[in-house]
Structures are given as C-alpha cells and as structure tokens.
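As a warm-up, study this chain.
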Amino acid sequence: MTRYGHVAIVGRPNVGKSTLLNHLLGRKLSITSRKPQTTRDAVLGVLTEGDLQIAFVDTPGIHAVRPRAINRFMVSEALGALRDVDLAVVVIEASGITDDDRAVLRRASTTGVKTLCAINKIDRLKQQQRLLPLIDEARAFDAVEEFVPISALRSRGLDDLLGEISRRMPEGPHLFPAEQVTDRPTEFLIAEIVREKLMRRLGDELPHRAAVVVERVWRPEGAKATHIDAVIHVERESQKGIVIGRGGARMKSIGEDARRDIEFLIGGDVMLRLWVKVAPGWTNSGEALRRFGYR
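Now compare it with the structure written out below.
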C-alpha cells in the first residue's frame, strides 16, 4: 500500500526551513542565505522512498506584517501553505522561543492540522538540558504532537524527524513520478539561483529590493551551451550601481557564481547574460509583484 502526504515547513524568518528541506531531499532546491526572508515563494520539494512519497512545502518566514506588498505576499504564502496539508513541521531554534515562534505555533494550533516541532540548531547548544524548558513552554500549544531536536545544517536528528513525519502520512497514491523533485519550472529555479548570489553578496546593501526574472532560455542551433537571459530588477538607480559594481566587477562575479550552480542544475554548459533594470517601488506594487511572478 502506497502512502502520500503534504507537509508544510513553517516558522519565523531565518530558523533554517530551507536548509532543512534541502537536507531532507538530499539536494539543494531552496536557496539559502544568512539574511532573514530569503525565501519569498512557497517551494514544493518531493521525496519518494519506496512506497512513501512526501511533498514538502518550504515557506517564507512568518513575521509581523510590514506595510510593503512584498511582505504581505510572503506572509500570505506561508499561512496559505497551512491549508489542506496533512502535517505541519514548525521549526524553532534551540536558543529559545520568541514571540514570532509563539505566533507561528498559535497559528498552527488554530488550523487543526497535526503538528511536529523541529527544534533546530542544537549543534550550537553546549548543554542539551537547556532544551527542556523550551519544550515545556511549547507543550502549551495543543497541536504539537512531538518535539524533535535537530541540526539541519549538520544533518543531525533528520532520520528521527523523517520517521515521525512518515508515520503520519496517510495511505494514498503518489501524485508525482518517482524521479520528480519539484513542481517548479526550470526558469524559476534559475531565477532563484541568481537571487541567492545577490543576497549572499549584497544582503546588507540590498536586502529585499531585488527581483530576478528569467526572460529566455534556449539553445541556438549547433551550440553546445544553453543560453539564458535574465534581468535583475531593483528599485532605485543607486541600487543598480551597487549590483553592477565598479567596472561591472560585481555583476560579473555574481554571474560566474550563478552560472556554476545553473550548470549543475541543468547538467550542461551555460551562457548566462544578466541585465539590471530599475523598477521604482516594485516591492510595494501589486502589479509589479504579479509581473515578476509573485502571484
């Protein structure tokens, strides 16, 4: 008998949700950086092991909604992922529960969905007994059925977490072919790779003011490389200069880093061309968000 279920990975920003998804899948799917709110879209990752198939949904960090449309979009994406799933995995940090963590646990409790709590970054704790008061406080949220200490980055405790998830998956047919790992198109994954390189290099100067749109992916007749045209959209002319850098050096470096990851993604040589365009106020424009793929 086959089993299939949807699992939402939720939590406040920067608790390691994307790192957890990548390590559960055994491959990089969601982009990561040290900056909060790196993840903007809910990303589906499919794990198939024998008769079991789990569709994980990596979500943006749930945070107090700020005025900008992009922030409202991210919170909406995360909360929407809690609907119609078989299980929620709420990720918190071993260092302690914050008000944002409590808000996420409270939200999971009100949906009525079964919930596990993954206590991440235990590798940073010198004394494991410090987890006990944290667990005691989290027990107040009735939806939480089990607490699993993990280190997503170090792959510690992930077998235990996957075991708890697997036991809660209902019987049913698989919805995806065994070899499929996501429902996202290649263009989306390419755009996310470029945005990751931007975040890692310019996270302080350009934290959430850049969007990447892949305009064209093609292979000219007789060419060995796949050609990709992508546009980096920023809000101000000064930000455009930051991305390009002196003499185009920063832009070139971002492109080189992204190209290596894209070649690994598609399994072949890539010719990547990047442009930077100014889209004034795009983070607070519903029309611009839709145009850039944030529906």
